[in-house]
Specification:
Blueprint: H1 2-30, H2 37-55, H3 61-73, H4 80-111
Helix pairs in contact: 1-4, 2-4
């Protein structure tokens, strides 16, 4: 029970830090000055989806996730001046999200080794 609480606390602390980091990155690359609760929740949901899939051995979820992100990105319209900043922000955000989800999976497997 203690390990589960530690894991959940680690997730919550990491998510809070990520919200701050993404806010700073958005301000630098995308000139976005407010923090969006909707974006924070969506990011957490994405990482939770990847965590659940990877913990259960469904690494193909990474391909599904990438295709889903690309599909939602195709409709995004920005003025040309802001497009490069948004593209950088989008790429950094997605790579960070996937890396964090993989890190969560590694921590999960460290705390709860798979039964063979």
């Amino acid at each position: 029970m203690i390990k589960i609480i530690q894991f959940i606390l680690a997730l919550l602390i990491t998510e809070a830090l990520l919200a701050v980091i993404f806010y700073i990155v958005a301000a630098i690359f995308y000139k976005k000055t407010e923090i969006s609760v909707k974006s924070v929740v969506k990011g957490f949901a994405e990482r939770l989806f990847l965590l659940i899939a990877l913990v259960n051995g469904y690494s193909q979820a990474l391909t599904f996730f990438s295709a889903l992100k690309l599909g939602t990105r195709l409709k995004h319209q920005e003025p040309q001046l802001e497009m490069d900043g948004f593209n950088d922000y989008y790429l950094i955000g997605n790579l960070t999200s996937v890396a964090v989800a993989i890190g969560y999976t590694w921590i999960y497997h460290s705390l709860f080794p798979p039964v063979v």
